[in-house]
């Protein structure tokens, strides 16, 4: 637009609304329309709307068509995201080092239409919230993921601060790999397996070094493993590294 026209206009700079403001307004609308929805579901709607009240009201209208009490899981299902129940299944499998359940849940999520990028993004938010729980357990307003404070508080007991930092680094690395690989589902599984605490306890970690093969060539390693764990993943997935 030409400066001469702009100089004759009144300019308004609109800011996005806070989660608390959107939740408060949605609560008023829900009461007026007799919509049965809990506080966690309203918070989930507010976070998904990215500060836009119109998007929040549209999503509230969609979930209001359900013939039951609306929860955060309903909101995530309609919005196409990963539900709290699904994230809890992943986190519980990771914290208990249950490889079979972890891979099974990951495969079910991918088969249901959830992209590996979406799954990792939700996990990244959840691990970030776990770090906040460990460092500032009373600051519930800082949480941004869809897993509730009560659930996070229980899960936080399974990790220490350093392990959570290593997990966040692993998630960030996996997100970078997804940009280049055509085997996104495989990299998702590798990343989830590398998040298991038994693979990198801080007191007993050992970074694997590449071993020479055939005429001095080196096989790259995948990550950090303990000496008492089977290291077959390193040889199975080295060839999936992104192009340099």
UniProtKB/TrEMBL annotation:
Gene Ontology MF terms: DNA binding; DNA-directed DNA polymerase activity
Span of domain DNA polymerase III subunit gamma/tau helical lid: 22-62
Keyword Transferase: yes
Alphabetic keyword roster: Nucleotidyltransferase, Transferase
Family annotation (InterPro entries): DNA_pol3_clamp-load_cplx_C, DNA_pol_III_gamma-3, DNA_Rep/Repair_Clamp_Loader, HLD_clamp_pol_III_gamma_tau, P-loop_NTPase
DNA polymerase III gamma subunit domain sequence ranges: 70-197
Family matches, as Pfam families: DNA_pol3_gamma3, DNAX_ATPase_lid
Keyword Kinase: no
Gene Ontology annotations of biological process type: DNA-templated DNA replication
UniProt name for this protein: DnaX, DNA polymerase III subunit gamma/tau
UniProt lineage: Bacteria, Bacillati, Cyanobacteriota, Cyanophyceae, Nostocales
């Amino acid at each position: 637009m030409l400066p001469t026209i702009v100089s004759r206009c009144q300019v308004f700079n609109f800011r996005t609304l806070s989660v608390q403001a959107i939740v408060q307004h949605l609560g008023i609308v829900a009461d007026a329309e007799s919509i049965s929805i809990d506080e966690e579901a309203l918070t989930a709607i507010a976070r998904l709307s990215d500060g836009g009240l119109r998007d929040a009201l549209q999503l509230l209208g969609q979930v209001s068509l359900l013939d039951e009490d609306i929860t955060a899981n309903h909101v995530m299902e309609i919005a196409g995201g990963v539900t709290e129940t699904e994230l809890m299944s992943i986190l519980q499998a990771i914290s208990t080092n249950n490889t079979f359940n972890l891979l099974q849940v990951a495969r079910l999520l991918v088969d249901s239409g959830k992209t590996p990028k979406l799954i990792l993004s939700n996990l990244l938010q959840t691990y970030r919230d776990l770090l906040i729980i460990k460092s500032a357990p009373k600051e519930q307003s800082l949480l941004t993921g869809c897993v509730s404070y009560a659930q996070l508080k229980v899960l936080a007991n399974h990790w220490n601060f350093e392990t959570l930092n290593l997990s966040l680094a692993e998630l960030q690395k996996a997100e970078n790999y997804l940009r280049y690989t055509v085997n996104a589902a495989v990299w998702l599984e590798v990343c989830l397996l590398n998040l298991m605490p038994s693979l990198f306890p801080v007191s007993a970690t050992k970074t694997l070094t590449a071993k020479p093969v055939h005429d001095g060539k080196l096989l790259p390693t995948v990550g950090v493993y303990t000496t008492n764990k089977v290291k077959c993943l390193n040889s199975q997935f080295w060839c999936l590294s992104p192009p340099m």
